Amino acid sequence: MGIFNIFSSDIAMDLGTANTLIHIKGKGIVLNEPSIVAFDKNSKKIIALGNKAKEMQGREHKEIRVTRPMRDGVIADFEIAEGMIRAFIKKVSPSPIANRRIIVAVPSGITEVEKRAVRDSAEHAGAKEVHLIAEPMAAAIGIGIDVDAPVGNMIIDIGGGTTEIAVIALSGIVNEESIRIAGDEMNYAIVQHFKKNHNILIGERTAEGIKCEVGSAVPLKEEMVIQVKGRDLVGGIPKTTEVSSVEIREALNEAVVQIVDAVRQALERTPPELSADILDRGVMLTGGGALLKGLDERIRMETNLPVHVAEDPLTAVARGAGKVIDNLNHYSRVLIRNRRY
Fold first, then answer.
1. By the 8 A CB rule, do 47 and 15 touch?
2. What are phi and psi of 14, to 5 degrees?
3. Could you say which architecture CATH assigns to the domain 3-138+317-334?
4. Which pairs with CB-CB distance under 8 Å and at least 24 residues apart come from 265-270?
5. Is 70 exceeded by the pLDDT of residue 134?
């Protein structure tokens, strides 16, 4: 390996709504932080990002804005997203990236305009060559599925902004269902539940903590009760209330039902030969949403298919994108093709 190659290590990035993960060729995953940026409102200068920015969330003063530049799996704030990509890359690799290739995992339902925004952001951050890969394809590769084989595999990748359902065979996506209902929508449902039923306003971070602690898709063997702190909407003062896992499950149910319906729709459109493969091999759950208690069981009950949660589902997409960048020639067929205008 020459000195040029040392300074131009290729990068794979899972640019998620909730978290950004970076894989550097030869090093593996070197960064896993929230896709959150804190910046000065006047100068637009980034003050903090990732974990440090998340600590500021909901606690900032009027001169600082804490924002998530990704919404529903795609770039919502172009300028801030570009700054975030540049800063994250600089954090893990201080050397210039002008000669690097970058592969970015994106939702399978991404539009041409959204693809262009992702490519432009990576190029402005200094990449020489930008490739895109669909998240469910990257997840399948990340969990060790042989995507080249003439066999059907179903992947359900539940992130922060989108749920991606794809049937994969022969290095391609045979059919896909991409819905913008995922972890963020579940957090929002919990916030709304507290407003309506407890007259309490809670923050996004608190809602996420509740979802992780007591959220579930099926009844738990032992239901739990936790204390939640928020602001009383009537009196305007801080207040503590108790909430049970049964209540939270009811709040999350609508989002869970929409995910299950999307899985059904994807199965209905699957060719019969591939349906037989899925019946034999089962469905794989990846992404942070796969960690919701009992979600695998709920999908199993609703579809009568074997459902498995991947090992370390949070990093599956980044691991897969990393494998692709490590062996780009072999995996060139799985990349999203550039459409010529």
1. no
2. -100, 95
3. 2-Layer Sandwich (3.30)
4. 265/177, 266/154, 266/165, 266/166, 266/167, 266/175, 266/176, 266/177, 267/154, 267/303, 267/305, 269/175, 270/152, 270/154, 270/167, 270/174, 270/175
5. yes
Same CATH topology for 3-138+317-334 and 146-310: the answer is yes
Three-class DSSP labels, the chain: CCHHHHCCCCEEEEECCCEEEEEECCCEEEEEEECCEEEECCCCCEEEECHHHHHHCCCCCCCEEEECCEECCEECCHHHHHHHHHHHHHHHCCCCCCCCEEEEEECCCCCHHHHHHHHHHHHHCCCCEEEEEEHHHHHHHHCCCCCCCCCCEEEEEECCCCEEEEEEECCEEEEEEEECCCHHHHHHHHHHHHHHHHCEECCHHHHHHHHHHHCECCCCCCCCEEEEEEEECCCCCEEEEEEEHHHHHHHHHHHHHHHHHHHHHHHHCCCHHHHHHHHHHCEEEECHHHHCECHHHHHHHHHCCCEEECCCHHHHHHHHHHHHHHCCCCCHHHCCCCCCC
Distance (Å, rounded) from C-alpha 68 to C-alpha 90?
Answer: 19
CATH (residue range 146-310): 3.30.420.40
> Which comes out higher in pLDDT, residue 124 or 212?
212
- How confident is the model at residue 93, as a pLDDT? 79
Nearest partner of 190 among 228, 220, 162, 164, judged by Cα: 228
The pTM assigned to this predicted structure is 0.92
What is the pLDDT of the chain when averaged over all its residues?
92
CA neighbor of 179 nearest in space, from 297, 73, 283: 73
Radius of gyration of the chain (CA): 21
Among candidate residues 289, 274, 275, the one with its CA nearest the CA of residue 180: 289
Domain-wise residue ranges, the chain: 3-138+317-334, 146-310
Instruction: Tell whether the model's pLDDT for residue 339 goes beyond 90.
Output: no
Which residue has tokens 């995996």? 331
